[in-house]
Design goal:
Elements: E1 2-7, H1 11-21, E2 26-31, H2 35-41, E3 47-49, E4 60-63, H3 70-76, E5 84-87, H4 94-98, E6 104-109, E7 119-124, H5 130-137, E8 140-145, H6 150-158, H7 160-177, H8 182-202, H9 207-214, H10 220-230, H11 233-260
Helix pairs in contact: 6-11, 7-8
């Protein structure tokens, strides 16, 4: 059983604690100064505390704090070379963290679906250990990327859930306008997205081939797809990802400039 300490139990840290805490593979210690944050994960964590010394016995330590807090936390951590430090701090480079600890450092960009075991994450190739790979596998899917691709990864899997929620809501509204009850329409739309996503991940066919498989000649699906193909819907989504990537890069520069003053 892997001993994991999560520092910071806000939205993302809390989601990881809940996701990992529901497996039989990890003993999770949740660390946060805020008693309310600790209370929010007390039912799934093996231990909650406000003491960073609790990281001493951890195999993996997860740094899930805000960027401006990261330097202070790092200065108070005393990790050894046989430990691994996983940083989630947005815009904080792996090298910045590695310079301040003896532990092996890997940077990841997860999303909130870690809580339900459906996370999508990007992890830097450098510093990634089998132990961390197993941890990420337990809460979803992940890809290994060069750190230079973290901004686009943030746009796709970090911001992507909001884009997916937007499209689910559009499908829901279409169902409601056709006469479905809002709860019925939401269930059908959300489950359809979930099933489609699982098909893309598990099926060897390309997305275009999967679309063709659903589109029977002269059927209902092809009628709707003809409208989508004639629209700019796909370009709007691509533009949304590009805008999120641009903002991620801006935030990273702002964080880097701020940390340079530390």
């Amino acid at each position: 059983m892997t001993r994991v300490s999560v520092i910071g139990c806000g939205n993302m840290g809390g989601a990881l604690v809940r996701g990992l805490g529901r497996t039989d593979h990890h003993r999770v210690t949740a660390i946060d100064l805020d008693p309310d944050a600790r209370a929010s994960v007390a039912d799934v964590a093996a231990e909650t505390t406000d003491d960073l010394a609790a990281t001493a016995d951890a195999d993996v330590v997860v740094l899930a704090v805000k960027p401006d807090v990261a330097p202070t936390v790092l200065s108070e951590l005393d990790l050894s070379a046989d430990q691994t430090l996983v940083t989630l701090a947005a815009g904080v480079t792996r090298s910045f963290v590695a310079e301040r600890t003896d532990a092996t450092v890997v940077r990841i960009m997860p999303n909130l679906a870690a809580e339900t075991g459906e996370m999508a994450a990007a992890a830097t190739t450098e510093g990634l250990t089998d132990e961390v790979r197993e941890l990420l596998d337990d809460v979803g899917e992940f890809v290994e990327v060069d750190e230079s691709l973290m901004d686009i990864s943030t746009a796709v899997n970090g911001s992507g859930p909001a884009f997916a929620f937007y499209l689910i809501d559009a499908m829901k509204r279409g169902g409601v306008e056709g006469g479905l009850d809002p709860d019925q329409a939401e269930t059908l739309a959300a489950q359809t997205f979930k099933g489609a996503a699982e098909t893309v991940l598990r099926d060897d066919r390309s997305v275009d081939e999967l679309i063709d498989a659903v589109c029977s000649p002269n059927g209902t699906t092809i009628e709707g797809m003809e409208l989508l193909w004639d629209s700019d819907a796909d370009e709007a989504v691509v533009d949304a990802v590009a805008a999120a990537e641009k903002r991620s890069a801006e935030i990273a520069r702002e964080v880097s400039e701020g940390l340079a003053d530390e």
